[in-house]
Amino acid sequence: MGKITKIEYFRLPPRWLFVKIVDDTGCYGWGEASLEGHTQAVEGCLDAWAEKYVGYDADDIEHIWQLSYRGGFYRGGPVLMSALSGIDIALWDLKARRLNVPIYQLLGGKVRDKLRVYAWIGGDRPSDVETQANVRKAQGFNAVKMNGTEDLGWLDSPRKLEDCVERVKIVKALGLDVGVDFHGRVHKPMAKQLVAKLEPHDPLFVEEPLLSENIGGIKDIAARTHCPIALGERLHNRWDIRPFLESGCVDILQPDICHVGGISEMRRIASACETYDVALAPHCPLGPIALAANVQVDAVTSNFVIQEMSLGIHYNVGGQDLTSYTLNPEVWRVTDGYIDLMSGPGLGIDIDEVQVRALSKDTKAWVSPTFSGPGGELREW
User: Fold this and answer.
1) pLDDT, tens digit, for every residue of 63-106?
2) pLDDT, position 126
3) CB-count burial class (<10 Å; 0-12, 13-18, 19+) for 312
4) What does this protein need as cofactor (predicted)?
5) What is the pLDDT of the chain when averaged over all its residues?
6) What are the residues facing 21 on neighbouring strands?
7) Which pLDDT band holds residue 311 (cuts at 50, 70, 90)?
8) How is domain 105-347 classified at the architecture level of CATH?
9) Residue 207's beta-bridge partner residues?
10) Selected catalytic residue, list 187, 236, 259, 283
């Protein structure tokens, strides 16, 4: 066992925030606390914890998790939980590296040797997806996800929904399964129509048909369709997901390991989903540490179904991608729609610290895009 001596964080392109924890025995672990568009807020939280947790036993992961969550008057939310994710993932990596085992061995052991994965095609303004779908197919994927629409008004022309259906038909004709992400940008008057139009074409899932604060509307849509409903990236702990499980309006939960408090809370969320016969398909458009952390939980989760990968996602600009910042990027090789479970210690990836430190210098925080309608009104991104 060792006492924590240092907690550092590194703001990195394209839009990631890595965390490193070192103890007094020389052991270390890496975590990820990326919160798209709110990097500075998470860094402020990490500044406070970097002072607070020096001297704590690095093995006491659950104690540190509970203290971080319950030790202040205010709890939950994306900023606190993302900062906690970085700490938690790094502590699991540190502990498993010290014991020279993968993290999944400390979570009960694996129930699978490989994991099905999917990747993005298109972007925030999807148009020609056929070329990108063929690229994904050549990379080894048999499932993809794309945005359903560009930004829409609360009530918009039904004609704007037809392009989404055509894109799904084109990609399915290539032999790929297709998840359709409404991204919370489709409001109820349009979402009801779009789900109905997609249903005959059997999407793999419909993601975030409405923003998660509109649980009543999601229940209404879920009751009208046989399409699997997926959501969860904007839910931040087990208490947030509880009403969705209890109402029966979600079929596939997509928590983001960087926004729910890390490996510890993701494992609890996965077990909660299992009790409601809800599948787990973690959200992960972020960096290699986030993906590796998801893989550790996916490996031990019986109700896991598919994992999002950020390889080549449209947000990865400037030369950095999922394969950056690591010395063994070959672990992300996709074959017949699957990646093999890593067998290395800790997270199973080796961070290139030289590159991390070099590229973190003077890196600006990523700013979320905004969309405006023809009248100048703000639209959902």
Assistant:
1) 999 999 999 899 999 999 999 999 999 999 999 999 999 999 99
2) 72
3) middle
4) Mg(2+)
5) 96
6) 7, 29
7) very high
8) Alpha-Beta Barrel (3.20)
9) 181, 230
10) 283
Tokens found for residue 112: 């699978």
38 is catalytic: no
At a CB cut-off of 8 Å and minimum separation 6, what does 242 contact? 272
Tokens of 366: 């990523």
236 is catalytic: no
Please spell the DSSP secondary structure of 103-171, one letter per residue. HHHHTT--S-SEEEEEEE-S-SS----HHHHHHHHHHT-SEEEEES-S---SS--GGGGHHHHHHHHHH
Answer for the pair 20, 36: CB distance below 8 angstroms, yes or no. no
Angstrom CA distances, 124 to 146, 177, 183, 190, 348, stand at 9, 20, 9, 18, 32
The active-site residue out of 183, 187, 236, 259 is 183
- Residues, the chain: 381
pTM across the whole model: 0.97
Quick one: DSSP state of residue 84? H
SS3 346: strand
Q: Are strands 252-253 and 279-280 parallel, antiparallel or unpaired?
A: parallel
Q: Give the domain ranges of the chain.
A: 4-101, 105-347
Q: What is the CATH architecture assignment of 4-101? A: 2-Layer Sandwich (3.30)
- Of the candidates 360, 347, 313, the one whose C-alpha atom is nearest the C-alpha of residue 29 is 347
Which runs of consecutive H residues, i.e. helices, occur in the chain? Answer: 39-52, 61-70, 78-99, 103-106, 130-139, 162-173, 188-198, 215-224, 238-247, 262-275, 288-298, 353-359
| Best CA proximity match to 175, nearest among 208, 209, 204, 205 | 204
Residue 230's SS3 state is strand
Backbone φ and ψ of 334, nearest 5°: -100, 130
Helices 130-139 & 162-173 angle (0-180, nearest 10): 30
Per-residue pLDDT tens digits for 18-77: 999 999 999 999 999 999 999 999 999 999 999 999 999 999 999 999 999 999 899 999
111 CB contacts (<8 Å, ≥6 apart)? 299, 300, 301, 302
363 residue type, one letter = T
